[in-house]
Amino acid sequence: MADARPAQRRSPTMIDIARAAGVSKSTVSLVLRDSAQVKGETRQRVEQAMQRLGYVYNRGAASLRAASSDFVGMIISDLTNPFFAELAVGIEDALYRLGFVPILANTNEDHERQAHVLRSLREHHVAGVIMSPARGSDAWSLASQLPASIPGVITMRRMIGSPLPYVGPDNRTGSREAVEHLLRLGHRRIGYFGGDATMTTQQERVGGWRDALAGAGILADETLVFETLPTREGGRQAVDRALALPRPPTAVACYNDIVAMGATRAFASRGIIPGVDIAVVGFDDIAEAEHNAPPLTTVNADTRFLGAQCAESLLGLIRGEDPAGLSFLGQTKLIVRESCGAARRERKAS
Questions:
Q1: What CA–CA distance (Å, rounded) separates 101 from 86?
Q2: Which member of 34, 66, 274, 278 has the lowest number of beta carbons within 10 Å of its beta carbon?
Q3: Average pLDDT over the chain, rounded to whole?
Q4: Helical H runs in 54-147?
Q5: How far apart are CA 234 and CA 131, in angstroms?
Q6: Which of 129-133, 139-143, 176-180, 186-190 has the lowest average pLDDT?
Q7: Which pTM does this prediction carry?
Q8: What contacts 88, CB < 8 A, 6 or more positions away?
Q9: Beta-carbon neighbour count of residue 89 at 10 Å?
Q10: Alpha helix locations (H) across the chain?
Q11: Does position 261 have pLDDT exceeding 90, yes or no?
């Protein structure tokens, strides 16, 4: 005997809603997650289609089904550096607004640890990866550890030969403007502290140092480039080596604010007062820079904005946009404080 019960009606799916609204399934997903990326008119069409078809969104079940697609890996090379901590906050804030959940990993500049993190993120099927590579990372190794099927964005440390979008500050221009400022203050023997020549960021920032000197008709004295770890201890070591020269520099541009802070402390411990006896300039403008003793003249890289741009570039990759158009070079701005001695010189001139 045939079953006389009426056939059970199939519940509408996200694909049904997408077809009815004339949008993609991913757009429907963004509407359900209340993403700000969806235009008002599109959102209204999707919501009307949901109401018309009687679609009920089970948020809990959806989270279990699609949790892996909501996660993004954030790989930071050194979270003990305040700059990278500020960058991570900028990335995390932007990812949250875009409807993603970040998974944060600190590699501590360790290649083996970086490879392990990338392997774990692959196993968790993340939607994408934003990473600041460990020092010395190369494009070939990264390509073998991060499949092309996983969208990826490189930040702060440009990786030569990698097809992945790069997001970072205009290091060369920022460094050049800092050294030009020192030249305007009358300095001619200007050193450079921190980083090493294998680091693309250091290459760009030292390039700006050379550009500024060349623009003033001064031959760059490469003996005034002191390669050290980009740390406070590195700043101290650079001071020791610089002061051992028969003619030490009268001003120094530093790889980052952390090196500059180590240098200002080391100079002061030797009775050399930064901003009076020697000029010191950093790079990054981390929160601590303003509270250094003395307050640090530095190059502002707009760290939070760069973090947000990393997230936007990754979203572009997830949408299928051309990676070639998703790289971003942020503008920099010189912030003048006491460590360069500019205010003191102005008082003398007035």
A1: 18
A2: 34
A3: 89
A4: 59-70, 82-97, 111-123, 139-145
A5: 24
A6: 139-143
A7: 0.78
A8: 74, 76, 79, 104, 307
A9: 13
A10: 14-21, 25-32, 40-53, 59-70, 82-97, 111-123, 139-145, 171-184, 200-215, 232-243, 257-269, 303-318, 342-349
A11: yes
CB count within 10 Å of CB 266 equals 21
Using the structure block, give the residue that is written with the tokens 């079940």. 61
Give residue-wise pLDDT tens across range 67-115. Answer: 346 899 999 999 999 999 999 999 999 998 888 889 999 999 999 999 9
The Cβ of residue 330 has, within 10 Å, a number of other Cβ atoms equal to 17
**Contact present, 285 and 257 (Cβ < 8 Å):** yes
Question: How many Cβ atoms are within 10 Å of 39's Cβ, its own excluded?
Answer: 10
Length of the chain equals: 350
Residues sharing a CB contact under 8 Å with residue 104, sequence separation 6 or more, in sequence order:
74, 76, 88, 92
Name the one residue in this structure whose structure tokens are 């944060």: 104
Which residue do the tokens 């196993």 mark?
123
Burial class (CB in 10 A: 0-12, 13-18, 19+), 7: exposed
Alpha-carbon gap, residue 183 to 95, rounded angstroms: 41
Whole-Å CA distances, 38 to 30, 199, 239, 265 = 7, 39, 53, 50
Q: Six-digit token pair at 331?
A: 């503008």
350: pLDDT strictly greater than 60 = no
Q: Which residues contact 226 (CB under 8 A, 6 or more apart)?
A: 191, 192, 193, 194, 237, 238, 241, 242
